[in-house]
Amino acid sequence: MKQDSDLATQRIEFGQRIKRLRGEKGWTLTDLSERTGLAISTISKAERGIIALTYDRLGQLAHGLEVDMSAFFTDAGKGFARGSFAIARKGDFQRQETDNYVYEMLFSDTWNKSMLPMMGTLKARELYQFEDFVRHSGQEFLIVLDGKVTVHLEGREAVNLEQGDAIYFDSGMGHLYASNGDNDARILVVCQSADAVAAPRND
Amino acid sequence: MKQDSDLATQRIEFGQRIKRLRGEKGWTLTDLSERTGLAISTISKAERGIIALTYDRLGQLAHGLEVDMSAFFTDAGKGFARGSFAIARKGDFQRQETDNYVYEMLFSDTWNKSMLPMMGTLKARELYQFEDFVRHSGQEFLIVLDGKVTVHLEGREAVNLEQGDAIYFDSGMGHLYASNGDNDARILVVCQSADAVAAPRND
DNA sequence: AGACAAATTTTCCAATCGGAAAATATTTAA
DNA sequence: TTAAATATTTTCCGATTGGAAAATTTGTCT
C-alpha cells in the first residue's frame, strides 16, 4: 500500500486548520456554507478529512473565510518554523543541471522557507541557445561571486555585471543569465517566493 | 450569480502556473509524473484547467515541483513594483560600521524590497564584546564568502562555518556573528523583511 | 425530565476526478 | 522527406467528490 496514511494525515491537519479558522470567527457550518456557496455536508466532511477538496472548492472556501489561500498551507507545525535553522555545508548542496547552467539548491530539504538561495555556475562560451525567458513570482537577488555575467531582462537592455556586482529585480520580468567572460561564472541567487512567509502566530 | 467562469478562469491560471514551473525545470510530463506520483494525464489535464485537482494531488504536485503549496495560489510579485530592478556596483554599497563589524547595505535606496541583502566584514579576533543577541522578524540567510565564521544562535550551540558554508534561520531567534579565523571574514547576509510582503486580496 | 431549536453528521447518488492505455502531435534522426 | 522516438492529449471507466435531504447529536429553555 502506498503511504496512504501520509495523505490522510495531511488532509486531517488541513481540516483542523479550516475548523479552527471557522471557529475563530464563531461561524457555524451553515454560516460558512452561505458565505462560500459550498454545501454544509461538504464542509463538514472536509473538516474531518473525509474528503479532499478540489482546487475550485478550496478557492471558494478561502474566499468565504476571508483568508488568502496560503493560510491553508502555511502551517505552524512542520517545516521551517519559529526557532528553526538549517546549515548547508559547501559539499552537500543538491545539484541540478540543465543545458545552460548548473545550480545547486541550498537547503532543498527545508520546507517553508521564504527565501530560496542557490549557487549557480554559468558555463562559459554558451552562446545564447536559450529558449526563453524565465519568469516566476516574487523577487530575486543575484550577486556575482566570480567571473562576468550578463543579465538579460525582458524589454530592457542587457546588464553586464562583474565580480562583486549585484542586481535585484522583480522575478516576474522575464530574465536570463549568461556567462560573459572566458571562464565559467559563479553566482549566488536568492529568490523570494511569495509563499510561506512566516505567518504571525497567535500567542 | 454563481460565477462559474470565475472558477474556470482561476483554474486555467493555476494550470499555467504549474506548467511554467515545470517548464522552468525543463521537465516533461513524464518527469513530473515520476516525481509526483501523479498520472501523466492528470497533470496534463490540470495544466489546461480541465480538471480541478484535489488537496491530496496538490500536495503531491507541490512536493514534486519542490515548491511550497502556497506558491500555487499567491499571484505574482506584489510589493516591489512589477518590472523594476536595481543594480549595485561593487563600489557603491553604502557602508555602515560598528565596533564589531562593517557591513554594506546593497540597494539601500530601493524601497519595498522583500529581501535585504548585505555584505559584511567581520573583523578578526574581536573577542566577544558583544552586547546582546540581535533579534528581528523574518528569516535570514548567511553564506561565508571568505574566512571562518562562528554563528551564535540563542539557546543553541555555536555553529562554525567555513568558506562556502551557509546557514538559514528564523531571525526571531537571537543571533550573532563573529569571525573565527586569523583574518577578517567576509559574509553575505540576506534578510527577509516581513513587511512589504503581505498584500490584500482584490476581489 | 421533557420538548424544541440549532448544529453537525450520514446517507444516497449524480457529477467529477484520476489513472492506464490508446491516439495524436511533436521532435529528432537518418 | 520518412521513420523512430519522445511528448502530449483523449478516451474510457473505476474511484472519489460534493450536494440535498434525512438522521443524529448537541445545546437551551421551561
Give a verbal description of the structure.
The structure is a homodimer of 203-residue chains. Chain A has five helices and ten strands. In chain A, the strands form two sheets. A six-stranded antiparallel β-sheet of chain A has the order 2-3-4-10-5-8, with no helix packed on it. In chain A, a hairpin with a 5-residue loop joins strand 6 and strand 7. The first copy, chain A, is 26% helix and 27% strand. Chain A is elongated and about 65 Å long. The first copy, chain A, has 203 residues and is α+β, with helices and mostly antiparallel strands. Chains A and B meet through helix 1, helix 4, helix 5, strand 1 and strand 5 of A and helix 1, helix 4, strand 1, strand 5 and strand 8 of B. Strand 8 of chain A pairs antiparallel with strand 1 of chain B. Chain A binds a DNA duplex (30 and 30 nucleotides) through helix 3.
